Amino acid sequence: MFCILALFFLSPIYIHMPKIIYNTHDNETYTIEVQNGLTVMEGAVQNDVPGIDADCGGGMACATCHVYVKEDWFNKLPKKEDGEEDMLDMAFEPKPNSRLSCQIIVSDDLDGLEVNIPSKQA
Amino acid sequence: MNKTDALIIGAGPTGLFTAHQLKLIGLNCEIVDNLDKIGGQCIELYPDKPIYDIPAVPECTGEELTNNLLNQLKPFDIKFHLNERVEEVKKENDNWLVKTSSGNSFQTPNVIIAGGVGSFEPRKFSPKVCEKFENKSLFYSVKNKSVFKGKTVSIFGGGDSALDWAVELSKDSNVNLIHRRDEFRGARATVDKMYELKKAGKINLFTNYQLNNVHGNEKIESIEIKHDNSEIQNLKSDYVLGFFGLIMQLGPIANWGLNLNKKTIEVDTEKFETNQKGIYAVGDICNYPGKLKLILSGFHEGALAARACFKLARPNEKYRFEFTTTSTNLLKRLGKKE
After folding, report:
1. What is this model's ipTM?
2. pLDDT at B38
3. Which residues sit opposite B210 in a β-bridge?
4. Binning pLDDT at 50, 70 and 90, where does residue A6 land?
5. From the CA of B117, how many Å to the nearest CA of chain A?
6. Which chain B residues in 58-97 lie under 8 Å from chain A, judged by CB atoms?
7. Which CATH number characterizes residue B214's domain?
8. Burial call B264-295: b when 16+ CB within 10 Å, e when fewer
9. Residue B338 falls within a domain, yes or no?
10. CB contacts, 8 Å: A86 with chain B
11. Do A89 and B180 touch (CB under 8 A)?
12. Using CA atoms, how far apart are residues B292 and B227, in angstroms rounded to an integer?
């Protein structure tokens, strides 16, 4: 029994982390494994994905972690909180599929989430 | 030329408390900030959002924190230079020569950068053509409203600045208000007032539109706005105003020969000094192993940088550590003892 449990914990399934796909405006793609509970913004910043500034550090106060979420994913994300749409007013070229990446928390459900990074954050 | 023991760049919470620490140990200081008000990000980004992690302050807003810090500075005489951006920092013998955007200059052995994420600048329109008209017939703030009298003004944005100016200018100008969505985040009363003026035909409202293009030679003649559904409208326009809030830019700091890491400045953790002797960085803008971007960390960093300033400002004196509870010197400076 112990062996089976140990095998389970050591198995790749257990350490599996959701993959987030970041496309930059100059068509580079970064596929990053981001730990559950971190935000899409943190996944980018901690892995040096260019184009996400996150000046305010995730406080929903600056709109410099703005991303466009691929259409098929957009509706699967939890809805925006009040303040997020207000901040998006300030973002560079906001579109209907705009989100602040600091407000998207990574979970298994988001494995494969694809976001496009705008050409500028400000 | 202003001579001071230390010049602080940035009037946010960290800059304010650093000033307190400098004055407490008997040094002079002056503060420069690019914004027109004191408080930095606390005032500009979240004046009414509660903060819960200031030690011994269970809950306070950005505005309350700023006011409390200013109260704490009351015993001291500190000169603030607001609406000024530090443009140049140059070495001159044992001093730094600092110049600001309004032509002020300072001579000081110590420069403390408490600049957050840099200076706040207005967010601009995305079409490149807008730069050509900037500060001529396209503005991101209003300095002289009389130029708009009798003209057609197109105002972009959905917050208080856009709404306030739409309401104000509708008295004497033909106003178009353009916003990217139906909801406005401004104060309820102003939003209601704007809708009233729209009903009365005093404001032309366009929602779900964004600026697409600007036409004109020397001056703006018309603008193109684009609906979410791609439909384009042409609006005759003499002036364009954009109110999209502020963005933080590192700005001239990048040219002062400091070791930068992304948008932060590398410092040691003893003096919070940069690679340049006599230039320190504290608060969100500094970087060292284990750095936390918390207000409380800024307070600690400022206290240590202030002590380091003492050595350069008073080379012939010895700094002695004292407590405010017991030191006659400190109590005198605080105005608690004759």
Report:
1. 0.70
2. 96
3. B226
4. low
5. 7
6. none
7. 3.50.50.60
8. bbebeeebbbbebebbbbbbbbbbeeeeebeb
9. no
10. 158-159, 185
11. yes
12. 43
